[in-house]
Specification:
Layout lengths: L3 E4 L5 H10 L4 E4 L7 H5 L3 E2 L3 H7 L2 E4 L4 H9 L13 E4 L5 H14 L2 E4 L2 E2 L2 H6 L2 E6 L2 H11 L3 E8 L3 H29 L4 H10 L5 H5 L1 H6 L8 H18 L4 H15 L10 H8 L6
Organism: Brotonthovivens ammoniilytica
InterPro entries: 6-PGluconate_DH-like_C_sf (IPR008927), 6PGD_dom2 (IPR013328), 6PGDH_NADP-bd (IPR006115), HIBADH-like_NADP-bd (IPR029154), HIBADH-related (IPR015815), HIBADH-related_NP60_sf (IPR051265), NAD(P)-bd_dom_sf (IPR036291)
Keywords: NAD, Oxidoreductase
Length: about 290
C-alpha cells in the first residue's frame, strides 16, 4: 500500500489523517511540533523532522495548512516539500488558499518532476472526523482518479472543477455563502426573538424549513445554547472573506454583501472573540438590538 505523508494536523488535518491511517495507509506526519501529532503517532504514524523528510518517505503528500503563506513556506523552504519531491511523488493540497498562491506551488512542484492536485474541502470538523467532507478538485483528471481510493476515505462528494486553479475559486465562492449565512441567521433569529418567539422555536423552524441546509442545521445547538465553541472560527472566516474579496478583484467580480458582512466579523475579532465560532454573529446582532437571554 502507498505511503502517505501528512503535513498540518490541526483541527481539520488531524481527523482527516486519522481516517487514512485507520483505512490502513502507512503514514509519515509533520507539524510545527511533535506534540501536535500525538494522536496520529498513537495510531502508528511515523514522525518526520521536516516537510522534506515527510516528502522523501511518502508517495502521496497531503497538506492542510492555515493559509497560502504557510503553504508556500512549507513547500519552498530549505527543508520544504519541494526538496523531497521527485517524478514518482504527488502533492495533494487541501488548504483554502488563493488561486495565485496555488499557482506558485504548482510551479514549484512541476520543477521537481512531481505532480500536484488541488483539493480544498467543504465542511468542518464533524464531517472531517466522519470522512464526509466535500472535495473540490482541480488539476490532472487522471491523477484525481489515481488518488481516488484515498480521497474516498476523506470525503463523500468529489467534484472535478477544472485543470488549473478552478477548485480554489470555487471553494472561496462557497465560503462566502457559508459566512454570509451566519448574518442571515442573525437577522432572522433576532427578528423572531424581538417578537417574543423563543430562540429554540426560531431555530427549529429555520432548520426544518426549505432553507434548513446543512449549514443551518449544524448551528442549531450553538445558537440555542449561546455558547459558540468553534467548529470554524471568526478568525478563519475573516481569512476566507479576505481571500474572496482579493479573488473578486483578480477576476473583476462584485461581492457587495460579503464586503459588508466582513465588517461584522472584524468587529468580533476586535473585541477578542476571533476564536469563537463564526455563528457568533447571531449574538452580536442580539446585543445590538437589545435582546438579553434569560
Amino acid at each position: 500500500m502507498k505511503v502517505i505523508g501528512w503535513i498540518g494536523l490541526g483541527n481539520m488535518g488531524m481527523p482527516m489523517c486519522k481516517n487514512l491511517i485507520k483505512a490502513g495507509y502507512p503514514a509519515v506526519v509533520n507539524d510545527t511540533s511533535r506534540e501536535k501529532v500525538q494522536e496520529a503517532l498513537a495510531l502508528g504514524a511515523q514522525w518526520a523532522e521536516s516537510p522534506k523528510e515527510a516528502a522523501q518517505k511518502a508517495d502521496y503528500i497531503f497538506t492542510m495548512l492555515p493559509n497560502g503563506k504557510i503553504l508556500l513556506d512549507v513547500v519552498s523552504g530549505e527543508n520544504g516539500i519541494a526538496q523531497g519531491m521527485n517524478n514518482h511523488k504527488v502533492l495533494i493540497d487541501m488548504s483554502t488558499v488563493s488561486a495565485a498562491d496555488s499557482a506558485l506551488v504548482s510551479e514549484l512542484i512541476e520543477k521537481t518532476g512531481g505532480r500536484f492536485l488541488r483539493c480544498p474541502v467543504t465542511g468542518s470538523t464533524g464531517p472531517a472526523a466522519k470522512g464526509m467532507l466535500g472535495l473540490l478538485i482541480s488539476g490532472d483528471k487522471e491523477l484525481m482518479k489515481e488518488a481516488e481510493p484515498m480521497l474516498d476515505k476523506l470525503g463523500r462528494n468529489k467534484y472535478w472543477i477544472g485543470e488549473k486553479e478552478e477548485a480554489r475559486v470555487m471553494k472561496i465562492a462557497l465560503n462566502t455563502i457559508v459566512g454570509n449565512t451566519a448574518q442571515l441567521l442573525a437577522e432572522a433569529v433576532s427578528l423572531g426573538e424581538k417578537a417574543g418567539i423563543p430562540v429554540e422555536t426560531c431555530m427549529e423552524v429555520l432548520a426544518g424549513s426549505a432553507i434548513g441546509n446543512l449549514i443551518v442545521q449544524s448551528k442549531v445547538e450553538l445558537i440555542n445554547s449561546g455558547k459558540y465553541d468553534p467548529a470554524f472560527s471568526v478568525k478563519m472566516m475573516l481569512k476566507d472573506f479576505d481571500l474572496a474579496l482579493d479573488t473578486a478583484k483578480q477576476y473583476q467580480a462584485s461581492l457587495p454583501v460579503t464586503a459588508v458582512v466582513r465588517q461584522f466579523y472584524e468587529e468580533m475579532e476586535a473585541v477578542g472573540r476571533g476564536g469563537e465560532d463564526y455563528a457568533v454573529l447571531v449574538e452580536r446582532l442580539e446585543q445590538n438590538v437589545g435582546i438579553k437571554r434569560s
